[in-house]
Amino acid sequence: MSTEEKREKASPYKLEQARKKGQIAKSNDFNSLGGILVFLLSLCFLFGFIGVNIKSVMQEILVSANLFKHEHNFWVIKRVFSSYLTIVMPVMLISLLVSVVFNLLQTRGLISFYPLKPDIKKIDPIKGFKKLFSMKAFFELVKNSIRIGVLIALAYYMYFYVVKEVHVKGISDINGFLKFTYDLILSTIFLFLIVMMPFVIIDFRFQNWSFLKQMRMSKKEVKDEYKNQEGDPEIKQKRKKRQRELSEKLGSLSNVSSADVIVTNPIHIAVALKFNKDKMLAPKVVAKGKGNIAERIKDIAKENEIVTKVDIPLARKIYKEVGINSEIPPDIYDEVATIYRWLYSLEK
């Protein structure tokens, strides 16, 4: 392993390999905030359902309170707990699901089982000790300490300036209490979002900076990677294939002027078709391309007054499945025939 200081930015290849191993920059605070916010918002949306059920359970117990004996205590506790669990469970499941979705959004759908692979290095006590005194550990300590302090201050404010209003307002009935609770949840969501959002933004930026720093390479590693890639037959083959395809697409631009029609995506893909019933069994793709090449095809078509037809599914299918100077396959005869019937109707 190289002892040279790592100052070079990580190459795309190294980042791609790290991603395959599940190593990416992500903020757990972002997932947690999403889950908690959705939990609170779900309470608001389902508040009517929750309130009615809680009210029903409490009325059932309180009305029959004089009939309960000492041996019925366990039944009462079980009844209240099971009812509350049934009421709150949908909210908890929604919160959990959203946390997973937020995590997938951060990782752009990455699911990797590589971190679950047994590795003796993970239980190395020396590395574990170093992590305790790393920059990341210090950042987490400071961040969590400040966050706990802020949450304590928020809880203090909510209790002394909001919750105590129950006595001040003289709320005595269950409906008034439920309305007060609903307003309290809304206030909590607003304040919680204001207080926690800065922590999420700071944590996200730090995790990204920390990950890129961890992925840095030494000059020797950059050179070794370049040599390995140059000598890798698979990478060479892929590079030659891309170059050949690009050369073929650029060379086919000269055929655009002889095309009958241009089928487009309409923005990213363009395919030029030509059909000669005396020489061909089916229309042929004389040129195709996407991005800048697609724009060039459309420009040439415009210069030569060639008709352009927008057909997103057909353009994508031909671009993906049919090579240049190849006839279209039988499974898309009908779609292409529709294009040509439309083209002939214009000529008439």
UniProtKB/TrEMBL annotation:
Single biological process term from Gene Ontology: protein secretion
Signal peptide residues on this chain, from the entry's feature table: none
Record-level GO cellular component terms: plasma membrane
Keyword terms, alphabetized: Bacterial flagellum protein export, Cell projection, Cilium, Flagellum, Membrane, Protein transport, Transmembrane, Transmembrane helix, Transport
Transmembrane segments: 30-52, 84-105, 145-164, 184-206
Gene3D superfamilies the UniProt entry points to: 6.10.250.2080, secretion proteins EscU
Domain of life: Bacteria
Biological role stated in the UniProt entry: Required for formation of the rod structure in the basal body of the flagellar apparatus. Together with FliI and FliH, may constitute the export apparatus of flagellin.
Similarity annotation: Belongs to the type III secretion exporter family.
The protein's name in its UniProt record: Flagellar biosynthetic protein FlhB
Organism field: Vibrio tetraodonis subsp. pristinus
